[in-house]
Amino acid sequence: MLDSFSVEQIEGGLQNGLVLKNVRYQTAGIETHIAQARLQLDFGCLLSREVCLRDFTLNKPTIAINTALLPPSTPDNSKSSQMKRISLPISINAESLVVQNLSVNIDQTNITLGNFKSAVSLNNEKGLTIAPTEINDISVIAKKLSEVKSELKAEQPNKPVDWATIEQSLTPAFLGNVSEIILPFDLHIPEISGKNWQYQAVNEKGETLQSVEMSSLIAQANTVDNQLQLQKLAVESSLGNLSSQGKLQLDGDMPLDLTLKSHLEPLKSDGKEILPASDVDLTLSGSLKKSTALSLKTKGVLDAELNGNVQLAQDKMPLNLTLNVAKGQYTFVNTMTPLKINDVTLKLTGDLLNYHAELKGDVAGMNYIPASQVELNADGKLYEVTVNKLGIASLDGKSEFVGNANWKNGANWDIQADLEKMNIGFFVPVMPATLSGKLHSRGFAGSQGWQVEVPVADLNGTLSSNPISLKGSATLNQNVLLTVPDLQIRYGENYLKASGVLDDHSDFALDINAPNLRGLWSDLKGRVKGRVAISGQITTPNLDLDLTSSNLHLQGFQLAKASIKGHINNASLSSGKLNIKAEQLHYGENIKLHLLDLDLSGDEQNHKLILKSQGAPVAANLQINGHFDRTLEQWKGTISQVKFETPIGDVKSNQAIAVSYDNKQTQANIASHCWQNTDVELCFPQAFNAGKQGNIPFQFKRVNLDLVNKLIEQNSLKGNLQVQGNVAWFTDKPFQFTANIDGNHLAFSQKLDYRTFKLDIPKLTLNADIQNNNLVLKTDINLHNQGRIVGDIRLNDLAKNRQLGGSLAIERLSLSIANQLLTQGESVNGEVVSKLRFGGNLEKPLLNGDFNIRNIRTKLKSMPVNITDGDIALRFNGNRSTLQGKIKTVDSHLNLTGRANWANIEHWTTELNAQANNFNVDIPSMAKLRFSPNITIKANPKELNLSGTVDIPWARIKIDSLPDTAEPVSEDEVILNGPHKSKEELIKREFAAKTKSGMYIRSDLRINIGKDVSLDAYGLKTNLDGLLSVKQDKGNLGLFGQINLTKGRYASFGQDLLIRKGLISFSGQATQPTLNIEAIRNPETMEDSKITAGVRVIGIADSPEVTIFSEPSKPQDQALSYLLTGRSLESSGEVGSTGSVGAALIGLGISKSGKLVGSIGEVFGIQDLNLGTSGVGDKSKVTVSGNITNRLQIKYGVGLFDGLAEVTLRYRLMPQLYFQSVSSTNQVFDLLYKFEF
């Protein structure tokens, strides 16, 4: 022993403290190491007959145990004796017991302890006292090894269950002859606490399989005078919380009083909840020697209460339990509805060997259990049960079962059922039959064999207002598969009869006569009649068939007439004759067979199959003649007279096709032949094999692309393709495939609106080759005078790594190919040149080379700028790329830069920046502006981010005025085909928070409007400046900032007003800005220059507050007079003044009647009829205008104060050329041409 024990260093002594460092001990299967141990004794205590241990500390003890190396334990044959009270000759007092950083390894389980701290005293007066103890930071990690498959042993017969031994073990009382429990001394535990305990089960890779954490444990207990008291037990863990307290008398009748409360957290497995949160309360009372009462309450999966008592000191443990379940619900299978139980009462009386059970309650769920009321009365033992009554009220009826089952020697049962008006529509919705009657089943299954017998089946009921019945009996066993003395099923006037035996000497017949199947199943209709007879050995039966049907209909299937007739003899040499005919077989809208006739006759050595059919989409006609050699297991034959009628025309073989099949080799051989069609000719130039391995050369001598046009119902493609190829597969290496596709003088055309896009391809070559698990794809596409695309793409190791290689070249692909889609005067020019090389693999592709769009020039009416020169260059370098581009116009240019990275294909990133300085944009008939953008777009799989600034230092915005009668969208107008319906929804709608690919959209764009920006629109002439910010986050698009209106003039109320103050503020919704505008009458037109009159507009845009004011303040009528005439009411009698007021009032009135006028115009066939005013002051006019046709416009105006009328006719000769005639006091003719700059 001393050889396996060592101490590196010893310091001090036992009285003052003995310190041992690096203590090692080793024995068979056990290795121990202690970094430091300290032991201190007080020998002075020995005088008072006491052992005083002042300190016992272990620091970093490590224990490794290999159970496979441990010596075998010797059996303990000594008899256990009853524990007795102990009187100690000496007291023990351990003042400090400390263990720090303990590590124990037992095979594949590692146990660590962070800190243990305690103190113990033991004496005759108080017994054992454990001072407050701390046990913290325990970790148990158990590694579960994968099971090693052992060699298969000879199968041993299952040993029968020894029920007699089980009964004998359960007969003695649970407590035996225990009269009292004697502890050697009293026990006092003020408190044992633990924190941060953890258990983990991991696999061989270290992946966590199960984890349980216990954050807190507190235990307080005491035993005095033969009474055990549990003052407190509290546990907090990831599984739930538990608390308990109670007491138990250890002598006499052993009375007890124990309560336990717990809350269980949801239990999950593989991230799925398998048991929801639950609360459990348990109470034990009474006595252990007489009757122990228990009360268990649960809430969660089951809201239940269990009450009762057990007698632990009596033989067989008599019991009396009652379980009441208010409700319960649990999902056993995710694809099924949960099982639900309600108002369940279960009473269980008797003992462990003989019991009586009574149950009542409601149950439903699991997809196949209808809402049912269950009532059970049963008696049983360990190995049998007798059902006195099992009643089930369900399916609008009820059923009652009686019987017994026994599993002492195999399984035996004898059950009888009485059904009363049970509706089986719950299980078979398309067949809602209501059944009543009797069923009787008995049988056995065990080592001696098995048998299932149904001696009585007598059911009757109704289905679809017709009587239905089933009567008969049947037996199945290991000797005779099926015996049916007589079985009859009737439905209305339809019946099916079966009788006979199925075994090695079968004699079974099935007769059916069903003249009217309506109502039997779903929408089944029609008539079936016939007989099927089976004789001989069941594995190779002889069949006689004679079945006919007419007018069958089931859902989308329809069959006007059909018959199956024949005889098949399989006794020795298979022979017979079988004929199947069908007329007018339709399924849905696509399959319509007018005739199907299949005739099979002959024997193994000489047989023939003839198939004839007519219909769509495919009809087949063929004849097969063959011979089968049973000894060699080979079949040889020919397929002739082949013709398939298909949507692409008739397909025929050019000759009879010789075919052979070797069943031993599992291989077929097909002779050379061709399949011919008006557009396609597919040939197999030589005989080929097909089986576990094969090699098939093939050749498309001609593929007319008009075939594709027929399939897609368009006329887009022209030309012919030729294809040569070969496909081969093997048992010991990957398959091989080659295909060479050539096309000459191909053409593609596609109508787009009123234009046609055409593309000529003089030559196309595509070669695909798969060899040794590697793919090579070569392409050469020559576009007529438009460029060339050449590809050489390689994909190696298709099954695993899928390595990329090869190249792709685009040679001067002209952008002018799109000019044919543009209008006269529009053009797009430029060319695409690219050379790319592929690398990496499909999961991490690499790309090297260039992709350039050069000499870009565009002239498009839809674009606000014409590009005079442009270049965009993409440079690829492995898993990164950069972009450089410059777009030039006549007097400005736009720079583009960008980069992308796909080193991690699932976390790719890309960035694009657009920057320009005073880039000129001209929007015809609307605006000219110069802007300096600096915008950055960043994207990754999760987010699309737009940020930057746009400076607009100069702009001239001019929008033609709307007519005075123009009406806004009505408040109650709805957009019928839009996602948002009402105007309020349109205003408050949220923009998409994600792209279709799932990226979140965020934007932060600042727009700076400079000092040289002017606006002329709807009577408003003003300069603009300000700063706006466009932000979008989580679908909310907001506009923030303000716009100032300076040096502005506004025509309103028939007057020319000056904008003295103009401020438009945005704080979220772009359609709801806040207005703060003051417009005053021109001081030069005021009678008194010291008086100012104007209009003040303040508030939200859709409901602003408009007030008329004057400075100094005057009454509203005076302020209005000054605003409209420049004079006070007393001085406003002049004609001009009256005209101003009248023009203003008329303008206000007309502005409210525009919608009514437009409706009147539509009644008389005049489009866009408008009523409005023109002119200022006493030159004001009322005008009416409208469109007689799309080309002819008429306008009529009358002066308000001079009475002069004016008629204008304008006719559009061409899109921008007009002829106009104006008739008033003078006659004028004009030829007008509209220019756009």
From TrEMBL:
InterPro entries: TamB_C. GO terms for cellular component: plasma membrane; TAM protein secretion complex. Residues 891-1237 form the Translocation and assembly module TamB C-terminal domain. The keyword Calcium does not apply. Its main location: membrane. It is found in: Membrane. It holds the Pfam family TamB. GO terms for biological process: protein secretion. Keywords: Membrane, Transmembrane, Transmembrane helix. The keyword Transmembrane applies. It is a single-pass membrane protein. This is Translocation and assembly module TamB C-terminal domain-containing protein. The lineage of its organism: Bacteria, Pseudomonadati, Pseudomonadota, Gammaproteobacteria, Pasteurellales.
